[in-house]
Target: Exodeoxyribonuclease III
Amino acid sequence: MFTLATWNINSVRLRAQLVCRLLADEAPDILCLQECKSPVDKIPAEVFHALGYHWIVARGQKGYNGVAIISRIPIEDAGDRDYARLGHARHVAARLPGGVVIHNVYVPAGGDEPDRTVNVKFGQKLDFLTDMRDAFHADRPGRSILVGDLNIAPREDDVWNHRQMLKIVSHTPTEVEHLGAAQDAGGWVDVTRKDIPTGPLFSWWSYRARDWAAANRGRRLDHIWATQDISGASHSSRILRDVRGWEGPSDHVPVFARFDLAP
DNA sequence: ATGGTCGCACAGCGA
Model:
């Protein structure tokens, strides 16, 4: 059995103490971070090490992007992909002792305008998802988990107001379709929604709201997926809303799931 | 309809 968490930390160096607090309070076996905004050699690995998290598999760059998998069970580096050939640190994979592979993904946000003819970043987001789809189609994953900030809230109840969000990047039909194609190509099951099938579910609230909790204009951008062969072993999904209220928070909160598998 | 807040790194870009 192991507990897995994913969290867009928005600078792992600035928020190393928040990571420690989560590790101490919730003790996930594996924590996947996105937007570390740090070269790998500047990630404060020692402080995680001191809490028993002896393994880190990461990709990084200066200032932007960056993904890391922090683990207290042994993991080995299982490589990375440069979807859409952006040259960004947006994917890394790790293998658990039993052979389960964990993909940690940070999908491009996509800018403000949901039109690739006027907004290059939106096109890059769609291309990233198309490349992911093609990779999973060519090499269909088994006994795998995919987590991360996918920057898309696919369902009506994954946003505070579906109608109002239809032309807002992260909830446009085009993006939802691209994400669905990548999900279908890999045979991925949305573990969070398997466990919590109905009702509003958010993992992100903008920094720009006067009062994020009162307005509650959230979106579910952060996801845990598993291939069908192991999705039945998952349970106890949780989204830690309270973490948004911690001092100096990330705009995202951690998403958790447990897997009844030998790690 | 607009502007609102962060982080990086030191001006403005990305989110």
